[in-house]
TrEMBL record:
This is Cullin-domain-containing protein. Residues 352-583 form the Cullin family profile domain. Pfam families: Cullin (PF00888), Cullin_AB (PF26557). One of its GO terms (molecular function) is ubiquitin protein ligase binding. It comes from Gigaspora margarita. GO terms for biological process: ubiquitin-dependent protein catabolic process.
Length: 722
């Protein structure tokens, strides 16, 4: 026997001594020198002897484990202990013969550690009997932990880590998912029918937390998410329809009562909605509650602005009282934010509240008789508090700007400097553009006053007197500056208009500016003679132009509709409104024939000469003996502009509610006939305003956004797209 053969046998003997827990007998340095003198084939032989030894030892481990009668935790503990002993031997070999791994790597062979793992995997973990015992132990240990028994979590964790290290975890993962799914399927069937909905949702919350914090701690990170999905599927999504029905039947009763259960109900509902990807549906529950509360508060305190502000603030902060003190986790925070966002939403879109705020300012600035707030700072404090509860102030802005235009353009403001002061204080509550536009508007009025003073100094002896506001087009509301109407002025009015333009253009700064007249906003003071008295009437331009046509008409004579239209060149709609103001207004200055039908092109029109007999009654209580007729043209334009904005907000909010309701119906079903969706929506009381076309429109929008789709084989079937 050669020295080389003896040296190879010495390596094998020392390997066996290590596995037999015997001390190493040979000189390690001598073995290293011998190995370094080996040929490559001889070094491969050393690797082969070590592999055979691993194989034999692994086979012995397999036989020992198969013979064990212990079950579950006891067997897992034996298995883990055996694994530790095996890895300790591998580590001792690697540490004692450190020079072997670099040589094996050069030869393209497995390392000492890798070689041992492969043999253990092949002989032990790939054994059907051992695998079966391990799997049973893992699953039973997890099941008993779920049932509340105290188990050895360290052994379970180490067992799973062995399977992960040896790349045999996938079958374990599939079995875990399958048994978890079956376990919670059985549990959910029992609890969902025997518990009330909030007790059940509390159970769901506890089980999800347990799976996430305890069971998932033993598993591979990737298993955590998949396992939780199975739990949520069986506990929540499988019973979504039944849970939803129970929630609907109890939620509003709980929220109406001031008890500690309200916070719990909101928390559990929010958690449930998170798991079915439907958090947006929470607003379907809280919206009716909030909306009703805000409406009742307004009805009670509309005439008490300070109290109104205080009560609205209570509604906004009521959510904090529903939760235990110190509840500041992500779940509570999310619910509080949603509640407060919906409160500000409903305050913002409540037209009556916005009108109240605007009215407070308007009454103060016009010194109305019924003003109850005399102190400006008190007024602004209330206004700013109310505005702070709004996330969208566009309705208020529209109302405020409408009133401001009236005050500025028609000289109704009590104090010009106070207007600027109020506007400055509003800046913090409004968008930046509000400031820019307001500054320009106020400056326009000052500039207009200077221009009119110059005009009157030059033409004060030439009637009619004229006062014109020169407004910067882009800074005023569109209904003020964006008119395209044309009209034929009376000769003396046309003369005054041209004279004003000459004065305006005489200023070098205005040389290149163009005046665009907005005649539908013009106001006129007209003197009418009724024997034995004259009266002054304030009305808008278009009715004035119509009245002037009757100036030289003999008593009892009439003008036809077509003649009036020809001489004024008013558009049909504007002419009809002007005639309505004169015939059906507060004072019927004109009469028509026939008297009761709507205005049309066949009508004849007369001066109402009978007014002379009641003229004293008409003028009683008027300011400066001037009778003001309702300005139907301007009033309609202002209201149209406001109604359009409010209608847009209402349509947007209704669309959100319809979308949520449609998704709530389709998600649990996965596929459902379109006609059935429409039928269910129209049966919901809060959608009493909806028509079939409204639902179809939202279904089409959801299809465009790819939340749902129409079945290609059956166009009447809707499919949910997860």
């Amino acid at each position: 026997m050669t020295n080389t053969s003896i040296a190879i046998m010495s390596f094998e003997k020392e390997f066996r001594n290590i596995f037999s827990n015997l001390p190493i007998q040979a000189s390690l340095s001598s073995l290293q020198i011998a190995f370094q003198s080996f040929e490559k084939t001889q070094q491969v032989e050393v690797h082969s002897r070590l592999k055979n030894l691993y194989n034999q030892y692994s086979i012995n481990i397999k036989k020992t484990l198969i013979s064990k009668v212990e079950q579950e935790d006891a067997f897992l503990e034996i298995f883990v202990t055996t694994w530790k002993h095996f890895t300790e031997k591998m580590e001792l070999i690697r540490r004692s013969f450190q020079y072997l791994d670099p040589a094996f790597q050069t030869l393209g062979k497995e390392s000492i550690w890798r070689l041992g793992l492969c043999e253990f995997r092949k002989q032990v973990l790939c054994s059907h009997e051992i695998n079966k015992k391990n799997l049973l132990g893992i699953l039973e240990s997890i099941k008993k932990q779920r049932e509340g028994e105290v188990r050895n979590g360290a052994i379970l964790r180490e067992t799973l880590q062995i399977y992960i290290k040896l790349a045999l975890y996938d079958p374990i993962e599939k079995s875990l998912e399958s048994t978890t799914s079956k376990y919670y399927e059985v549990k959910s069937d029992v609890y969902v029918r025997n518990l009330n909905v909030y007790e059940y949702l509390k159970y769901v919350k506890e089980r999800i937390k347990y799976e996430r914090d305890y069971i998932s701690a033993y598993l591979h990170p990737r298993t955590k998410d998949s396992l939780l999905k199975h739990v949520e599927l069986k506990l929540i999504k499988r019973h979504a329809k039944l849970i939803w029905e129970k929630i609907e039947s109890t939620f509003f009763d709980i929220m109406r009562n001031p008890c500690e259960k309200r916070g719990q109900a909101l928390t559990l509902l929010y958690l449930y909605l998170v798991k079915i990807d439907g958090v947006e549906l929470l607003q379907l529950f809280i919206d009716p509650i909030i909306e009703k509360r805000i409406e009742l508060i307004y009805e009670q305190f509309a005439s008490m602005p300070l109290e109104l502000s205080s009560r609205l603030n209570e509604v906004k902060n009521e959510i904090k009282e529903m939760f235990e003190e110190g509840c500041d986790d992500d779940l509570c925070t999310a619910i509080k934010e949603m509640w407060q966002q919906r409160v500000t939403k409903y305050i913002s879109k409540n037209k009556k509240i916005n009108e109240t705020i605007a009215k407070l300012i308007h009454e103060f600035m016009t010194s109305t008789v019924n003003v109850k707030i005399k102190n400006l700072e008190e007024l602004l404090e209330i206004v700013l508090a109310l505005l702070s509860y709004m996330d969208d102030k566009e309705i208020f802005r529209t109302l405020y700007m409408t009133d401001l235009v009236t005050r500025l353009c028609f000289e109704k403001t009590s104090n010009f400097e106070l207007e600027r002061r109020v506007a400055t204080r509003l800046l913090n509550a409004m968008e930046p553009e509000f400031s820019n536009n307001l500054d320009v508007m106020l400056n326009d009025i000052i500039t207009s006053s200077q221009i009119n003073e110059s005009y009157n100094n030059n033409y004060k002896s030439n009637p009619p007197l004229l006062y014109a506001n020169v407004l910067t087009q882009d800074s005023w509301p569109k209904y003020v500056t964006n008119s395209t109407l044309t009209v034929k002025l009376a000769p003396d009015l046309e003369q005054a208009k041209k004279a004003f333009e000459r004065v305006y253009k005489a200023d070098p700064e205005n040389k290149n500016k163009k005046l665009k007249w907005q005649h539908e906003l013009d106001r006129c003071i007209v003197e009418m003679t009724f024997e034995p008295k004259n009266i002054l009437i304030s009305l808008s331009l278009f009715p004035t132009l119509v009245l002037l046509l009757f100036n030289d008409l003999k008593s009892g004579c009439y003008l036809s509709y077509e003649e009036i239209k020809r001489q004024t060149e008013l558009e049909t709609a504007e002419l009809n409104r002007a005639l309505q103001s004169l015939i059906f207004g507060k004072i019927p200055l004109l009469l028509k024939d026939p008297p009761y039908d709507d205005i049309d092109s066949t009508n004849k029109f007369y001066i109402n000469e009978s007014l002379g007999t009641v003229i004293d009654t008409i003028t009683d209580g008027t300011e400066n003996n001037i009778i003001t007729l309702e300005d139907l043209e301007v009033t309609k334009r202002v209201q149209d502009a406001l109604d359009i904005k409010i209608s847009q907000q209402l349509a947007e909010d209704r669309a959100i509610q319809l979308d949520s309701a449609i998704m709530r119906i389709i998600k649990p079903e996965k596929q459902i006939p379109k006609a059935l969706v429409i039928q269910r929506i129209l049966q919901i009381p809060r959608f009493e305003w909806a028509k079939e076309k409204d639902v179809l429109l939202r279904i089409s929008k959801l299809e465009i956004d790819r939340f749902i789709e129409t079945d290609k084989r059956n166009r009447n079937l809707l499919l949910y797209k997860p």
